[in-house]
Amino acid sequence: VRLLITAGPTREYLDDVRYLSNASSGQMGFALAQAAVDAGHRVSLVSGPVHLCPPAGCDYYPVETSREMYEACERLFLGCDGVIGAAAVCDYRPKRRAAGKLSKTGQGLSLELEETADILAALGAKKESRFILGFALESTDRRANALRKLGAKNCDAIVLNTPEAIGSATTSVELISRDGQTVATYAGSKPEVAKSLIAWLTAQIAGQQGR
Amino acid sequence: VRLLITAGPTREYLDDVRYLSNASSGQMGFALAQAAVDAGHRVSLVSGPVHLCPPAGCDYYPVETSREMYEACERLFLGCDGVIGAAAVCDYRPKRRAAGKLSKTGQGLSLELEETADILAALGAKKESRFILGFALESTDRRANALRKLGAKNCDAIVLNTPEAIGSATTSVELISRDGQTVATYAGSKPEVAKSLIAWLTAQIAGQQGR
User: Fold this and answer.
1) Cα separation, A35 vs A31, whole angstroms
2) Which residues contact A202 (CB under 8 A, 6 or more apart)?
3) ipTM reported for the complex surpasses 0.90
4) pTM to 2 decimals?
5) pLDDT at residue A5 in the model
6) Is A90 in Cβ contact with B18 (below 8 Å)?
7) CA distance A202 to chain B (A)
8) Are B1 and B205 in contact (CB under 8 A)?
């Protein structure tokens, strides 16, 4: 089974120096890639800037911006059997990126942001038989937001976690299937949780292929 | 001699997850701290989030935001004989920080930013006999901007470098003294350049104290 896994944050530049980002460390996505390799899958790992070494045996595609991640995923999607969207893709990017470094003006600044393309939704729209596992990081109306994302991105299941997981070595997640049922909850180190998620995903894909 | 050295980027949060930042790796500031320790100085290192280990023997104060860096520097300033401002402090921060994680609205967003306090200028305004070495990262009108900053921050000298230095292992800098003269240019690995800068700074402080 060939899996496409996204990881890490993206950076959305205002100019050549400043950017919008988030504190995603990439640990969950990299742990998923490691667990998938360990389970015998072939893995394409697309990650924003992180300070981690990609697992031996996976194909690694480092990117910076959400646009670059989108393009890499589009290229790799056709050849994969499943997608895990664990990246914390920036939702917004500056409408314009200035060349060089903007000088201070001595006053405030109004920064015009536009939404970035929803990578997982774009892949979900043409998923065919591929299995798509999304992630939802929610602080309020958690379950409702996760279910909305599950539908909007055409995922087979979604992993619901909280902002506390960002940059942390541990996590506590709820795995929700397409019909809105909680399939499992996992808590522990990210490698442990990743191993459980990959075991579940492997069984799901085997089941789909066996039908 | 007790030196206060700032390093790394800062993060300015929009909400609990997203922030404005820059790609400063902290390498130059940490190299300066190491070179200063090696030269026998006592070092207080105040750094934004980086993936580096502080040099053995220095007092380390990790911070996240420009406000936290400002407060740490204010506290440490009275006890120091010199300041090196190598941090890439964010110039702007969102006017409001939302709790939790803002949900996407389905449309663009106008983000209101305000200037952050100029840490080095605040310290420079009450420098008395302390030696203050600033850094200026400029892409256009480089020398003019560096000289303006040197004056505005009441520095004794300023190190002029370029956006290419950000995150890079090497750098190429011009050292400009209070009278606008280029004192030296240094190029090479950041540890090499840091060693040269600390040697120069040490001689300057010794000269001041000898007067």
Assistant:
1) 6
2) A1, A39, A41
3) no
4) 0.90
5) 98
6) yes
7) 31
8) yes
